[in-house]
Structure prediction request, 1186 residues.
Amino acid sequence: MPIYNAPLEDMRFILNDVFKVEDFWKSTEDLSFLDIATADAILEEMAKFSKNVLLPINRSGDEEGARIEDGQVYTPKGFKEAFKQYAEGGWMSLAGDPEYGGQGMPKMLTMMSEEMLMATNQSFTLYPNLTNGACLAINAYGSDEQKAMYLPRFYSGEWAGTMCLTEPHAGTDLGIIRTKAVPNDDGSYAISGTKIFITGGDHDLTDNIVHLVLAKTPDAPAGTRGISMFIVPKFMHDDEGNVGERNGAGPGSIEHKMGIKASATCVMNFDNAKGWLIGPENKGLNAMFVMMNYERLTMGLQGLGGSETAYQNAAAYALDRLQGRASSGVTSPEKEADPILHHPDVRRMLLNAKSHNEAARCFAVYVAKFLDTAKFSSDEAAVKEAHDRVALLTPVAKGFLTDMALDACIDSQQVFGGHGYVREWGMEQLVRDTRIAQIYEGTNGIQALDLVGRKIVKNGGAFLTPYLEEIKTFAGGMSAENAFMKDALLDAVSTIEDTTNQLMALVKDNIDEINASCVDYMHAFGLMSYAYMFAMMVEAAQEQSGDFYSAKPKLAEFFVKRRLPELKARAAMALAGADTLMDMSDEYFAQAL
Amino acid sequence: MPIYNAPLEDMRFILNDVFKVEDFWKSTEDLSFLDIATADAILEEMAKFSKNVLLPINRSGDEEGARIEDGQVYTPKGFKEAFKQYAEGGWMSLAGDPEYGGQGMPKMLTMMSEEMLMATNQSFTLYPNLTNGACLAINAYGSDEQKAMYLPRFYSGEWAGTMCLTEPHAGTDLGIIRTKAVPNDDGSYAISGTKIFITGGDHDLTDNIVHLVLAKTPDAPAGTRGISMFIVPKFMHDDEGNVGERNGAGPGSIEHKMGIKASATCVMNFDNAKGWLIGPENKGLNAMFVMMNYERLTMGLQGLGGSETAYQNAAAYALDRLQGRASSGVTSPEKEADPILHHPDVRRMLLNAKSHNEAARCFAVYVAKFLDTAKFSSDEAAVKEAHDRVALLTPVAKGFLTDMALDACIDSQQVFGGHGYVREWGMEQLVRDTRIAQIYEGTNGIQALDLVGRKIVKNGGAFLTPYLEEIKTFAGGMSAENAFMKDALLDAVSTIEDTTNQLMALVKDNIDEINASCVDYMHAFGLMSYAYMFAMMVEAAQEQSGDFYSAKPKLAEFFVKRRLPELKARAAMALAGADTLMDMSDEYFAQAL
Prediction:
């Protein structure tokens, strides 16, 4: 069974040394209740819970999977008990609105908890995660009555939530959904239609499940402007929240998937199910995006959780496994072979994973700080800046982090040789589970399109320019000892500036250039952002002493010399021109059929 | 269920137009019996067999898996019948030695058959594949009696073979194996030990299974110079091949794996099993490498088979799936959305896969031509050159092709969005199955080490230089219409030359530089080789007319502009220096434990 030890030292380093989080909290009224000691206690508790409760049921959950019987989904052995402990530990309410019984913790802290959850049990974590999403949507768009009814029950873990978007013919393209919502006389709606890929669409963890369903009212405009959101409970309930008869909403089947097998992915049938409008009619997508910006960072953390556990296990294996002799001389003469950690290529794979993990965690905190500023700050200018930065970086936090995470998982699996392919070791599950994070919540191609199209080209760089200026200013103030990092960072920024300018010019002539360039551009942009994170980390480490800190510039140098060269290659690919993609006919792709 | 249509037009293009295979066959005495029409008939038959017999049992085989009961392994439903058809169709003997009933077909042709087999059912294909390996080893090192006993029975499909190398503590490092072979009075040996990861170690497809087992005799020298190879049958047999009682060799258990689940991966227990030496004592690894050079190309073909099927299905899905509107204008106004094929990024993913498939197939034929020259030619200089080239390119054919293949499978899966993650569509199985090809038969890290260490640095470029000269000569003769390809190719060769020279200098000071650079170097080298393949393909296409041929330069241009930029990045990483890997202490990697 895989090991996991929460990287608390790294988490503290980023929160305290890199981002001086207590200063930020103390200067923000709604977060001033929080101090390092409290934050630390929360991290310590989650480190224990994730390791002791979730990790032990991760592989058994994968082997057993979720199952459906007579229209009811059952989670694997141990999940119900773990969820009970999770709820009783107060974890469901960690980020919740204090007005309704939540603890009001900032994302900078809850993201650390999310990383640990994802690191130990991705399937389990999706159940509370989807409820978190429903909380955000209801909190943002629900009436006072709706908030009072649902939020406390979500926070206590009595009830759970889902997000029902996708339909068989409508995934990325929600404008063409067909689920109908017909008004009833009592102010409710009759919801009918089929939704697919509904994570936690049904399960046995809670007394009730509340579905947030996108549907179209009878006279709704076509496309995305005619989508409304409805609250559709699994069991009807009265005004006191007493659960009654079953509503016409339930799972038809569950998907058999590559991974996250303990997470029930449901086909949901709505058959004149009773539902209530949440938020204004035809504005359902707005509510959805409130939730999504927050959740997309969580998907990045899913990747990070997977790759952190993958790295830890690969490092442990590389220390333990004896095979061959180190090329520069025997290192374990008393044994019949040396640890494979002493082979340079094994280290390369490990450091690939580790450099991603450290940069990704730092980047997630960086984005979380803007999320928290946007949510908690009373400084209008800061809130505006934070909103813009979140908008710019969210697709990167989801798309780039999860692409890098899969690579890290594959590299870590490779360290195990044949043992990495065998289920018993758990490495292949990490690859299978983590793979989904590149696909759902908007595929990574869609994230990249969002980045280049909506967040950069559409506003002429209004979000991008301040980010690049901030990086240049930071680089300008770096210490002489970190000159290698400063030079690499400035070179990266300069490449992104040039590439962006050239790309904007190309787009003027051909709108296809946006989608043609976006994934490669996102990778170049992500690598530059990782370089910025390493720059911040080496500067913060500079002020401390000890092995932990003195290793930071070494990993940064690894990143600069062995990962960052990809940036220029990606930039070249991004500027390759859409013609290289669009010149082939449809028949060309139909050749094999 | 996934579709598959053998890419016969592409196969013919490469064989006939690019490599003028009939000229080669006619000029080689042992192959002069072969003509295009015969070759074509073989390809057509395999296209049918693989599609009609193997593809239908691929997913069911994955779902059911191989199983073990009372020391006997059973293959999934349909495998036994398929193997019978396979054997009756003469496929087992296709490449076999005519002296013992084989058909003596060259690798240039049998590799096409292997691609189709791997494309439709990787698990199934491993059973005959391991037998092929055993055939090669016995043919090269067996006595006349051993050849006469085993080869005809392998070729007919009555018996099967295995290769038993790995032990729990000894994978890459075979020098430390512990399996013992103690001489009996009758000239046989008593073999005792445990082998793991034995593909097809047991199954129900044949009447007998003949294991080729690496073991150490009592006074054998330590390390790889003390390893001998033994023939150990599952059932004892008399001189007429009549099968008798069970030998002390059998499966203890089978592994539960990420993929190739229908292929039984056995733990094999040898308990005073009766075995016979094959080849000279202590020279067992030589026999193993005879087999491996041939088989490593087959592993590259496993990757290609997986990525070809992945591409075909992704292309079909992209033509069919309607989602969103093309950014440059609606293309299917009569429908509610446009095919996702009209989104540039979807094409990018498809062309990533397709450019790999076409280049990989061409490269495999290129290598196979040298394998055939080495085996069949009577021209001593040509044979010598061919051996050198095979030695140089085999690790690339295995390591680079399978790395690229996994990327192609992942890109193709990504085209499906959420549907790619669902088992029903079969895309995730292609990812899981194809993943093993990067791991077994020597991990890709070991392939890269072989390339840089043994095949380039050790001989000071003696194998490399003629290859690069050949490429430069070819580029020099390219037509003006293909100037873009010529320039890109010459630039790639020049980068490889510079990188190799710099690397050799680095190695002089630090032997670790070989292993530190090798994977990135292999990728740079592989990309240059793909560029050479595209150069040959566009030149050959130039001489023909029609859509099929006029599309070749378009794909080549895609490759040059959107894949080849990675070459320089990889070259930079290869030259990053071993210090970036070796500077961290063991404790650094133990941090998380």
